[in-house]
Write a structure and sequence with these properties.
The protein is α+β, with helices and mostly antiparallel strands. Helix content is 44%, strand content 12%. It has 4 domains: 5-67, 3-Layer(aba) Sandwich (DNA Methylphosphotriester Repair Domain), CATH 3.40.10; 90-188, Homeodomain-like (Arc Repressor Mutant, subunit A, Orthogonal Bundle), CATH 1.10.10; 201-282, 2-Layer Sandwich (TATA-Binding Protein); 289-366, no CATH class. It is built from 17 helices and 9 strands. Strand 6 (228-231) and strand 7 (234-239) form a beta hairpin.
């Protein structure tokens, strides 16, 4: 019989990371405190709970499915995207990308499974194994955490927050927050704000450092077209209703440590989750640099380059209908690269990026 996800975590390693408030584990697990009913990030500044009162969960959805509510102090919605499952299940990776884009806001788990070419029961089994929660629970947690971030960080009214976070109605939004937090969502907002009235939505999206921002913006500038461009280090994308379910624009700039600043000006707030999902894909915000460096460094041809430029990430496509994981995608006809790339799985896209960097260095030396 398969062990529950909480038991598959290394409990001792999680406890050590918690007591050290080790930022490397932020987003890799969540600490549920049974005496308070709250779950936290491992970097939470609150007093460390007693060991016997702690249960570690592999995802925020797992903790919420077990009946815990998000900490208002460390704000789990601002943790980096969890990437520990990447490379272990391409189906889970693809499903999460679809869920983040709103697949379960308008459809059900059976339709999601059909899009992935698997049965619904098998999809639920994979999610339980890797994330500790069913697909619908993951989707619900994403809605709640995005709503929490909008409540804290934006000036949107509660009705606008409900629309922008993927809730089907304000009533459902209010009922969900009342059940989770024992209070209406408006009481989570610590300051008085006026209605947004067409203002831009500004949010910070997190990632795991290091991040080579200059290399990313240079790559995006090189592919600029009529819909996207880079100006002064800021990436700007025009939004079209036929593609994005809204008209408007989104811009992304470097923020504080481990964060990018996103500003979205959109006509239809219901499109916000999909826009944010595409921003995360373009800027590869869910990457796990530690795992990438560890695995690619096993190839002697890449080891020095990976060590010298640990924050390189390949830019993603705004629209990505492909069924494989972008992190393992190689688009080349170079037979030498293709032959070598098999040893880079599940990070072939990153390996190809470093391979190109090495080749460019050799060409420069030869010239």
């Amino acid at each position: 019989m398969e062990r529950p996800p909480t038991q598959r975590l290394d409990q001792n390693a999680c406890w050590r990371a918690l007591t050290a408030r080790d930022a490397r584990f932020d987003g890799r697990f969540f600490t549920a405190v049974v005496s308070t009913g709250i779950y936290c990030r491992p970097v939470c500044p609150a007093r460390t709970p007693r060991r016997e009162n702690v249960v570690f969960h592999p995802s925020a959805a797992s903790a919420e499915a077990a009946g815990f509510r998000a900490c208002l102090r460390c704000r789990p919605e601002t943790a980096p995207e969890m990437g520990a499952w990447r490379g272990t299940s391409n189906t889970v990776s693809r499903a999460l990308a679809l869920i983040e884009a709103g697949a379960l806001d308008t459809g059900d788990a059976e339709a999601l499974a059909a899009r992935l070419g698997v049965g619904e029961r098998h999809l639920r089994r994979l999610f339980r194994r890797h994330l500790g929660a069913a697909p619908v629970s993951v989707a619900q947690t994403r809605r709640v955490l995005l709503a929490k971030q909008l409540i804290h960080d934006s000036h949107l009214s509660m009705a606008q927050v409900a629309l922008a976070s993927g809730f089907g109605s304000v009533r459902r939004f209010n009922e969900t927050f009342q059940a989770l937090y024992g209070r209406p969502p408006s009481e989570l907002r610590r300051r008085r704000v006026e209605a947004a009235g067409g203002e831009a939505v500004r949010l910070g999206l997190t990632y795991r450092p290091p991040y080579d921002w200059a290399a990313m913006t240079a790559a995006l500038a090189a592919r600029a077209d009529v819909d996207e461009r880079v100006e002064g280090g800021v990436w700007i994308r025009r939004l079209r209703r036929a593609v994005d379910q809204t008209d408007g624009a989104v811009s992304v700039a470097a923020g504080g440590p481990g964060q990018v600043r996103v500003e979205a000006r959109i006509d239809d707030l219901k499109a916000l989750p999909g826009v944010l999902a595409r921003v995360r894909r373009v800027f590869d915000l869910a990457a796990d640099p530690e795992a990438i460096q560890r695995d690619l460094s096993l190839d002697p041809a890449l080891a020095e380059a990976v060590k010298g430029r640990p924050g390189l990430r390949p830019p993603g496509d705004w629209l990505d209908p492909a069924m494989d994981d972008p992190s393992d995608r190689v688009t080349t006809t170079d037979p030498r690269l293709l032959a070598r790339a098999e040893r880079w799985r599940p990070w072939r896209a990153y390996g190809a990026l470093y391979w190109t960097l090495i080749e460019e260095g050799r060409d420069a030396q030869a010239a």
